[in-house]
Write a structure and sequence with these properties.
Strand order of the largest sheet: 8-7-6-9-5-10-13-14
CATH architecture of the largest domain: 3-Layer(aba) Sandwich
Number of domains: 3
Oligomer: single chain
CATH superfamily of the largest domain: Mur-like, catalytic domain
GO molecular function, one term: ATP binding
Strand content: 25-35%
Protein name: Coenzyme F430 synthase
Organism: Methanoplanus endosymbiosus
Structural class: alpha/beta
Distance between the termini: 38 Å
């Protein structure tokens, strides 16, 4: 086939490479930077059998108006993976909770002495051992190499993916139904994710996160329940409980419930989740100098996770002064961290001192009305240093939206 692949910087080059190795002829267009592949003008003059386009591209782009069948990057990845799917492949998508849910499920599978591959924004790691093989993005195209590697080496695969799933997997998990505009504001992120999940063998949703229209999904709360810091689970003959302090944190509670429910569906007892620890940048805590630091800086940061981190800090040390490092380092993270939410988080946090990180520095005047002491920093690293200079024998909460 003669295939046009759009967007070389978000996985198009990888998709094109795999299609060529499968015997297809491809042209690739860099629709955002216009630096690689052929030009848009040249592509407009040519005829194609198929166009592979990312779901976030403006639907009014001229190359999407050609008389040609159009599929998404997610669908293209599924076609490439099709005959080389790992024996077990779980795909995870959602605005929040993807990485934590993926690691929690991998923890269960790893404890049962099975060999696998975990592909997340933290890197692609092989188990047992957790050795990082490579670090890539979580575009649908990046799942291709992970799936092929897992297939060749007899490994299970748990893959975190942005804006939907390929549908090649046995199970598709939705961690959050939070919505935001994509494709120049002309599409809904949750609609794109829900549509892609319909191609999965089975769909599992995190507690309370089932979107309208996804009636065929298995709800995690039908299998698991958390009460008084204990998770109870019962499904298909597997029944038990586990206790973990992380169940007190909303994000971890949902992730652990979802992982437990998925494990039960796979016929595995998830009791080992009692030993699951917080991930770096997702409520991990530790002592640094005279201060205790709660690290909640990741790509999923929002007002809810910020306030969760503040409450968690209060449980660790109720009497310590609180310094909140908050902001965002990059505007290219899909969901963003709107100025109004940052200011609302500052107001509700009751923090004694504030460090505005990265692009949040522009909110200094507004923040000074909410807190007595406000400092600025260039980003997360600088924010930590600034907060440590301002804080002694206290608590520092890091809540900067950033890629890690």
């Amino acid at each position: 086939m003669n295939i046009l692949v759009l967007d070389t910087i978000h996985g198009g080059e990888e998709i094109s490479r795999h299609l060529i190795s499968s015997g297809h002829k491809t042209d690739a267009v860099d629709v955002y930077r216009h630096k690689s592949g052929i030009s848009e003008d040249d592509a407009l003059l040519k005829s194609y059998d198929l166009t592979a386009s990312p779901v976030h591209l403006d639907p009014d782009h001229p190359l999407l108006k050609k008389d040609c069948r159009i599929i998404s990057h997610h669908q293209a990845a599924a076609i490439i993976i099709r005959d080389n799917k790992p024996e077990l492949m779980v795909e995870i998508t959602g605005a929040r909770g993807k990485t934590t849910t993926a690691h929690a499920l991998a923890h269960v599978l790893r404890e049962h002495n099975s060999r696998g591959l975990l592909h997340t924004s933290k890197g692609t790691a092989e188990f047992p051992g957790g050795k990082i093989l490579w670090k890539k993005s979580i575009t649908p195209a990046s799942v291709i190499d992970a799936a092929l590697y897992a297939h060749e080496n007899g490994l299970w695969l748990i893959a975190e993916e942005s804006l939907g799933v390929t549908g090649a997997g046995d199970i598709g998990i939705l961690t959050s139904k939070d919505d935001y505009p994509i494709a120049s504001g002309k599409k809904s992120a949750i609609e794109a994710k829900t549509k892609s999940l319909k191609n999965s063998g089975m769909v599992i949703t995190a507690p309370g996160e089932d979107p309208v229209g996804n009636t065929g999904a298995v709800h995690s709360e039908d299998i698991t329940e958390v009460k008084d810091g204990i998770c109870r689970y019962s499904h298909n003959g597997i029944k038990g409980t586990f206790k973990n302090p992380l169940l007190e944190i909303t994000g971890y509670k949902k992730a652990l419930q979802t992982a437990a429910a998925t494990a039960c569906i796979l016929g595995i007892d998830p009791a080992c989740l009692k030993d699951f620890l917080a991930l770096e940048g997702r409520m991990s805590s530790g002592k640094r100098g005279s201060n205790i630091i709660i690290d909640n800086s990741n790509s999923g940061v929002n007002i809810e996770t910020t306030l969760d981190a503040v409450r968690y800090a209060g449980k660790i040390s109720p009497k310590g002064d609180l310094t909140l490092v908050i902001g965002l380092e990059a505007d290219n993270i899909c969901e963003g961290f709107p100025p109004g939410e940052i200011l609302d988080a500052i107001r509700q946090s009751g923090a004694d001192k504030i460090v505005l990180a990265g692009r949040a520095a522009r909110l200094k005047k507004e923040a000074e009305r909410l807190a007595g002491c406000v400092a600025l920093s260039s980003g997360l690293s600088d924010g930590i240093t600034t907060a440590e200079k301002m804080t002694e024998n206290g608590l520092i909460v890091l809540s900067v939206k950033t890629w890690r």
